[in-house]
């Protein structure tokens, strides 16, 4: 088994898909000779040729729209949007076409495409490069939104997304692209979509997180353990449709829940989870649900981004409040 | 049977060759030593700013930064043709234009250092901040022009973008509207042959970028973008055309990106050093200096004095920038709305307590 970072695991998954499925094609800005600005596709054009790994002109509209057309013809396009901040011209294609082509044609034409995009803050990037649009995308019926939380999950979930018969937006937490490596079995085995992953088992409190917030939440779990608090940590992984069953089961056990995300608090995906728990787990809850999230502000440019992003301290304060609630 | 329905041609203008020898008669402004010295000084200043910005980034004191090395003549040439009351909508690589328009070195450092306060420049108050999502500034330009026409102002709008930006719908859509409504917008395309790692020919099959204007009903022309005199002259013509109520136009400035795309890029992954060295022979500063030497008594002493002055100015601006404390967390809420709604005010209070 190889020790891989998340970016290497993504490359390994892309490479496996290109090797094993002739219908898989990759396109996007600078993904060819440059290997993508984060090097997700490093070496793939050289290995698989520029017919299967293509640089496009600078147009997110045509990247997403072309993916819809190619997917409808039976190819498996895996398109890259260079940063999630530039995905917005592609929204028209996602909302009006990718997510509903199957529905509109009663299953005659389908859209097995993947749109990959690095997202999130923490890397001192320029303006518009650090936002977290998962909730906006999750609000599009017919679209899957997946965020890997570790190298192994990136590998398995990306393969699952590519093999899935429907469109998936695969948001990659770029802050942890190279943060850690772990052993990844690169045998082509996919991990299940629509399922959460239990990262740490605990009894007193459920933490729900995804993307780069997992590492921050993980640190909080360790600190809470020192205080004698046993926290369970769930990686949501597929944001839409999400694994309500797993979240409910965990909260039914612990009675307490803190949800962590980078995106702005109001109508962030945490709101959806909290609402579901309020509807279905009320009798199990022994404390209010808390959300630790980005503020309802524009994602600040780099000098203030550390002040914006949820950190361990904020998670700990919320967790302690929840634990002390009577 | 078919008859010719329409025909077009795209011209390319230049005033100096790469060694600084005039090609034909120069425009009147280029006969004036002070004007030429000012253009040269502005390009030298832009280059010095670029060098310092990269040095600051390399030592962790600035964010990701895209230099305009080799493209200084475009920003300076375009801005020097504009009037104060005109409005500039720059891409992220037109530092020379912003500086000429009166944005200060310190403000530019502050912005690229990751602080939005750098966009609140004291100088050209109606100019837009740099545009990061490629091409999205072009539709704004149409709106700025619409406002000017509505208010019977005589200003003209200049929107600048790269070769890559001409692939975006935003660009074509704005061109089309500006053509349909005869709005006073000058589109300036800095064609530096690359959009990160994508070559100009991979970006579009069109023979020139200038001809994209034709489809929108605007005149389009190429100019040697390393020739500040030619850039300024072409911009003056385009501005006069628009100011006379004859509508917008497009100028494709031919240049070359001598540096990496940004400090986050490594261009050696996708282009040969030889290509870059060949283009160094055409860079914009030397040719203008040669003209100044040949015709206007520019000499080593003047050159050295200019460099000393510019470097000192850049260093002092960098020092002032580095002394600026980051804004407090609360500042994130300060400019969300004209007045903070009560709900957000409560959140802002909570945020202040977060650390
Ligand atoms: C809409 C959008 N897509 C992608 C990017 C990432 N990006 C930044 S600059 C750039 C290339 C721009 O090329 P060009 O327009 O030629 O300008 P240049 O950088 O050469 O000055 C890309 C792809 C972006 N900023 N905005
Ligand atoms: Mg370019």
TrEMBL record, chain A:
Its cofactor is: thiamine diphosphate
Determine if Translocase is one of this entry's keywords: no
Q: Which residues form a coiled coil?
A: none
The EC number(s) attached to this protein equal: 1.2.4.4
Q: Boundaries of each Transketolase-like pyrimidine-binding domain copy?
A: 4-179
Database matches in SMART domains: Transket_pyr
Q: Which UniProt keywords apply?
A: Oxidoreductase
What name has this protein been given in UniProt?
Answer: 3-methyl-2-oxobutanoate dehydrogenase (2-methylpropanoyl-transferring)
Q: Which organism is it from?
A: Albidovulum salinarum
From TrEMBL, chain B:
The coenzyme or cofactor needed here is:
thiamine diphosphate
Q: What is its EC number?
A: 1.2.4.1
Q: Which reaction does it catalyse?
A: N(6)-[(R)-lipoyl]-L-lysyl-[protein] + pyruvate + H(+) = N(6)-[(R)-S(8)-acetyldihydrolipoyl]-L-lysyl-[protein] + CO2
Instruction: State if Signal is listed as a keyword.
Output: no
Q: Which InterPro entries match?
A: Alpha-ketoacid_DH_E1_comp, DH_E1, PdhA/BkdA, THDP-binding
Q: Which residues form the Dehydrogenase E1 component domain?
A: 41-319
UniProt name for this protein: Pyruvate dehydrogenase E1 component subunit alpha
Gene name per UniProt: pdhA
């Amino acid at each position: 088994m190889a020790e891989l970072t998340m970016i290497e695991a993504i490359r390994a998954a892309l490479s496996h898909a290109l090797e094993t499925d002739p219908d898989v094609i990759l396109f996007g800005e600078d993904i060819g000779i440059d290997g993508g600005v984060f090097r997700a596709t490093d070496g793939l054009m050289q290995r698989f040729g520029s017919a299967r790994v293509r640089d496009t002109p600078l147009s997110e509209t045509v990247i997403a729209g072309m993916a819809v057309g190619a997917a409808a013809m039976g190819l498996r396009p895996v398109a890259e949007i260079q940063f999630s901040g530039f995905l917005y011209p592609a929204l028209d294609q996602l909302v009006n076409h990718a997510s509903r082509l199957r529905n509109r044609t009663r299953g005659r034409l389908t859209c097995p495409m993947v749109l990959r995009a690095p997202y999130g803050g923490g890397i001192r990037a320029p303006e518009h490069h650090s936002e977290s649009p998962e909730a906006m995308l999750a609000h599009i019926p017919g679209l899957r939104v997946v965020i890997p939380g570790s190298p192994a999950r990136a590998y398995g979930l990306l393969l699952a997304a590519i093999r899935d018969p429907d469109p998936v937006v695969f948001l990659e937490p770029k802050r942890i692209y190279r943060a850690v490596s772990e052993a990844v079995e690169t045998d082509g085995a996919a991990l299940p979509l629509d399922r959460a992953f239990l990262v740490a088992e605990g009894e007193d409190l459920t933490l729900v997180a995804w993307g780069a917030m997992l590492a921050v939440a993980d640190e909080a779990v360790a600190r809470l353990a020192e205080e004698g608090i046993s926290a369970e940590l769930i990686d949501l992984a597929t944001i839409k449709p999400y694994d309500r069953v797993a979240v409910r089961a965990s909260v039914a056990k612990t009675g307490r829940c803190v949800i962590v995300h980078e995106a702005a608090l109001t109508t962030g995906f945490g709101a959806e989870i909290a609402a579901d728990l309020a509807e279905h787990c009320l009798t199990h809850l022994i404390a209010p649900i808390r959300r630790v999230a980005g503020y309802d502000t524009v994602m600040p440019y780099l000098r203030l981004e550390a002040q914006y992003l949820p950190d361990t301290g904020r998670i700990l304060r919320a967790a302690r409040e929840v634990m002390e609630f009577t | 049977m078919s008859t010719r329905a329409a025909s077009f041609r795209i011209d390319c203008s230049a005033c100096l060759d790469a060694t600084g020898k005039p090609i034909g008669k120069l425009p009147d402004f280029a006969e004036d030593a002070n004007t030429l010295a000012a253009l040269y000084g502005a390009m030298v200043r832009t280059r010095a700013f670029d060098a310092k910005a990269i040095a600051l980034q390399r030592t962790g004191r600035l964010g990701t930064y895209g230099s305009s090395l080799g493209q200084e003549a475009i920003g300076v040439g375009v801005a020097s043709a504009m009037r104060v009351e005109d409005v500039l909508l720059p891409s992220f690589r037109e530092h020379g234009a912003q500086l000429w328009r009166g944005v200060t070195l310190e403000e530019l450092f502050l912005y690229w250092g990751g602080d939005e306060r750098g966009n609140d420049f004291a100088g050209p108050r109606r100019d837009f901040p740099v545009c990061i999502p490629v091409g999205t500034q072009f539709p704004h330009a149409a709106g700025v022009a619409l406002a000017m026409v509505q208010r019977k102002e005589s200003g003209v709008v200049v929107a600048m973008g790269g070769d890559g930006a001409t692939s975006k719908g935003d660009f074509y859509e704005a061109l089309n509207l500006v053509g349909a409504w005869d709005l006073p917008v000058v589109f300036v395309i800095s064609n530096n042959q690359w959009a990160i790692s994508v070559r100009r020919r991979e970006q579009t099959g069109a023979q020139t970028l200038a001809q994209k204007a034709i489809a929108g009903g605007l005149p389009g022309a190429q100019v040697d973008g390393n020739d500040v005199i030619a850039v300024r002259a072409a911009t003056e013509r385009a501005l006069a055309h628009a100011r006379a109520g004859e509508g917008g136009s497009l100028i494709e400035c031919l240049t070359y990106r001598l540096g990496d795309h940004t400090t986050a890029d490594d261009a050696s992954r996708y282009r040969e050093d030889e290509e870059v060295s060949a283009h160094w022979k055409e860079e914009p500063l030397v040719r203008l200096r040669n003209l100044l030497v040949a015709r206007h008594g520019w000499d080593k002493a003047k050159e050295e004095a200019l460099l000393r002055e510019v470097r000192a100015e850049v260093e002092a601006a960098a020092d002032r920038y580095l002394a600026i404390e980051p804004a407090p967390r609360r500042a994130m809420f300060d400019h969300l709305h004209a007045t903070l709604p009560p709900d957000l005010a409560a959140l802002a209070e909570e945020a202040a307590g977060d650390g």
